[in-house]
Write a structure and sequence with these properties.
InterPro entries: C-type_lectin-like (IPR001304), C-type_lectin-like/link_sf (IPR016186), C-type_lectin/snaclec_domain (IPR050111), C-type_lectin_CS (IPR018378), CTDL_fold (IPR016187). The protein is an alpha+beta fold and about 160 residues long. The protein has helices spanning about 35-45, 55-70, 75, and strands spanning about 5, 10, 20, 25-30, 50, 80-85, 95, 120-125, 130-135, 140-145.
């Protein structure tokens, strides 16, 4: 099991294996970049989805982890992570890829979302891990998520 110290995960073995445990989920933080579609396919290969940030509590835990992982401003410039958020089906109607739930909580950086050709949501390091819509073909790091101790729910 993974224990926490002031919200920061501590590495240990447990139900998440080599993934990181935060709250009720297991997370894989990639160390390479991919397009949004490629990132989704990689997560699916692990029986996971791109991360869905559906509450302020989850966002707080994630932001704390990323701040710890990228503590210096110079570390943050390339620390952009794809999430499962998108408005691919209907412009300006953002939802999470796994659950298809519309956004009930948001953490957009000022001025976002801004461009109609940018349908996928990233967490942007240089903006202190606020959300930003971006072109789905751009290459970013990504975060996979699956429920603690199980496979993600199958929708559809």
């Amino acid at each position: 099991m993974l224990s926490t110290d002031k919200g920061q995960p501590q590495a240990s073995s447990g139900p998440c294996g080599s993934w990181i445990s935060l709250s009720e989920s297991c997370f894989l933080f990639s160390d390479f970049t991919a397009s949004w579609g490629e990132a989704l396919a990689i997560c699916k290969a692990f029986d996971a989805n791109l991360i869905a940030i559906e509450s302020s509590d989850k966002n707080f835990l994630l932001e704390g982890y990323l701040q710890n992982k990228h503590p210096h401003d110079s570390d943050k410039s390339g620390a952009d992570y794809w999430t499962g958020g998108n408005d691919i089906e209907k412009e300006r109607s953002f939802n999470w890829i796994g659950s298809h739930h519309p956004f009930a909580f948001t953490n957009w950086m000022t001025g976002q979302p801004d461009v109609s050709e940018q349908d996928c949501v990233e967490i942007r390091g240089i903006s202190n891990f606020k959300w930003h819509d971006d072109n789905c073909n751009h290459q970013h790091l990504f975060i996979c998520e699956k429920p603690l101790g199980g496979s993600p729910e199958i929708i559809g």
